[in-house]
Amino acid sequence: IYPGVAGRSLMGTYLEQANWNLENAVAAWRAGRAALIGRPPPPPPSPRPAALRAASGWAAAPGQESSGTQASKAETAMSAKGEKRGEVLIPFNDNFEQERRDAALALRLHLEERTGERGVMSPAEAVLLLHQHNWDLTQASTSFTTLQHARTGLARTYDQMRIPVQREIAPVAQQISAMQQNERLAELVNLTGRNDWYSLRVALQKRNWNLVATVSRWYTHGILPVEAPAAVAPYGGVRMDVNLRPLPLPSRESTMSTAREQGWAAEPEAFEVLSGEQGSSSSSDSEVGPSLLKQKRKRPHGFMVNSTRTTAKKGMRNDQKFLIEYISRGRYWFNRFERQETFRWPDVNFSEQAHGHYPNPDTSKLVDFDWNNQQHLHWLNNWRRQNIQRATGLQTREQAQRWLPEELDFLYALSEELLQEQLRSNPNKTEDQLLPLKVVMDKKVEWTRRMNDKFAGTMQAGSSEPRRNREPSALMTQRSRTRSIVERFKVRPDEAYFAKVERKEKRAKAAVEAVQKGVKRRREEEDSDK
């Protein structure tokens, strides 16, 4: 449903009505949304679009009857139940940008109704709170108890993004400035959901990269589209879709804000003031000195656009997972999952991707990507993890911790200790009868505790950093990958792992033999020359 506004309770309603079938729930959501705003609904509309009207409680589009007259008694009761809980209702709009602005207004009105205070929330505060919660109105409205509580959370991330980006000469300072620009541009693209990233970059540059001031301007006036020169940005400065086709540049009319309501507070100079200082409010885009703001925290090296680090899940189709978008070196980049030797992609324009070209594969062996095939998902998740790491400089998971000989010896000793315990507990059984050696859960936990007590936090020979704690699953996996333990205690081997090791050893042996043959050949040539 991206880039539309979401509501957790409403999404739950749709999933329940679709019997928790994700694709059916999404199709029903889209059909209901289209019917509500007066569009022809996309097929198939299941369950009925009226469920969305009843659950949302928002005014019907022109020419449509209200949710109270169209919905069934059960659906009307559902809407009443939502209103009784005090949930914020989703302001659906044909224009996604305006829908997000309307959601910010709905959040402000909800706060005023809850607290009785008027004119205390600014446009940027409402927008950034929703952005922090992925435009989920339900989650955003319940995430804070007071406005000051909400401002404290905003300050940690966004106060530093008010400070003008310095134009330094020193290389290190230049790198930091470039990272700040990349981060703020990625935030603004994600916040607005816009296709035209170059237009947003121009808007930030006009305000000396003050993200909060730019967000406030976007709410009150909008950001007009700017077509990028070809020498500056390819494809006119717009993003790509999952089929590697440029998304359209929005029209001027669609980007202009229609927000004309009163009652907003002026934008504060900072969301959170340092202790002992008093901040003032101003509606202008004035620059803010660093003395007012909290110190910068460490930032990642790259900045993703419209991407979460969650893995693709079985049976949960999400084609957006095929595309990774990010901001780097002041512009937009993309990378698309291919594996063209395996999958058939009839709609994808791979000519736009600058790498990953394969020889013409045997098309008779190509298959469609299957969201219920665990191997397909494994390939996709591996690709995403590697490419997100390259784009951001961050690991999506910690690197595997190599097992040291001392740790393997200790794991072997634990297994031997367990076998001897079982022999003493079962005097009528032979060792062969007790094998393969099984480890119950309590024993796994005990082994893990003892392993961590002995090695965690220590510096071992051949290691460059202290050992981290290991999990029980890591110990059990290593048992099946240690040949001495597999042979001694008849543990079921990890055949895929041993096959991989064997292939690696063969490649290494072949490389050594090739070098030896080359050396021998050169010596023979030298001898013949003599």
From TrEMBL:
Ranges of compositional bias, category Pro residues: 39-48
Coiled coil start-end: none
Protein name: Uncharacterized protein
Start-end of Low complexity biased regions: 49-61, 275-293
Chain residue ranges for the region called Disordered: 37-80, 275-302, 456-481
Ranges of compositional bias, category Polar residues: 64-73
Organism per entry: Exophiala aquamarina CBS 119918
